[in-house]
């Protein structure tokens, strides 16, 4: 006896309700990216170029995040794609992490090449670019902040916006130092600091994305406790082949074989197991196979 919701109506992923906010953040980022690149190339400012490059990753990342959500919404699970395209959101988050790694690496290499001969960077255009960038990133930050708590996909885009916000603040500081003291190394040092600030946050985003893609258990869930809770239910003799993984942010999935004791009502055991998974562990999509002692022997013969 089992229970499987594989072909029920597709639920909305955690990031699905943030489509309009993503679209608006994308529009804001696109406009200010063009402005910053124009100023960066006109002034040879590494700090502004670093911030503009981060804004580019914002635009690309937001586009991927938005595209992944739309793909998941339009393509419900089928008999050939039993989980639909929900994993597209996780791939978008991982791609965001890769983009951030590339940008941070480029800035560090460019900074090294400028050691000894820092270019003279005009302060006022850089200051204007930094202030404009702060305004754009604050707007996007406010749009995405709540969604970042629910969705890894939104969090990837949100982290890029936060990195850009810090970058824009750095650009303003660099411009003020240049205007006040005329120190040529200020722009280069701020650009490097922006890149170094981004790297550990990018690493964590990539790590969380890969954890989902490798189908590890959710990091906040102790699967041993889940197994013990199921085995403690009345009428349950043994729980094996228990698997818990995350399909995409907000969608945890489980499957398990539950062996009943002699005389136990399989239907009662199944409902109790479904209830404890949904209520105690927030796992609403569970495929559970309830089996008697004879059926369980076959599982012991399997090699994996």
TrEMBL record:
Key word Membrane present: yes
Location (main, coarse): membrane
Membrane-traversing stretches: 22-46, 52-72, 84-109, 121-144, 156-177, 183-203
Cation efflux protein transmembrane domain mapped to chain residues: 23-213
Membrane topology per record: Multi-pass membrane protein
GO cellular component annotations of the record: plasma membrane
Cation efflux protein cytoplasmic domain mapped to chain residues: 218-291
Keywords, comma-separated and alphabetical: Ion transport, Membrane, Transmembrane, Transmembrane helix, Transport
SUPFAM superfamilies xref list: Cation efflux protein cytoplasmic domain-like, Cation efflux protein transmembrane domain-like
Family per similarity comment: Belongs to the cation diffusion facilitator (CDF) transporter (TC 2.A.4) family. SLC30A subfamily.
Protein name listed in UniProt: Cation transporter
Organism from which the protein derives: Antrihabitans stalactiti
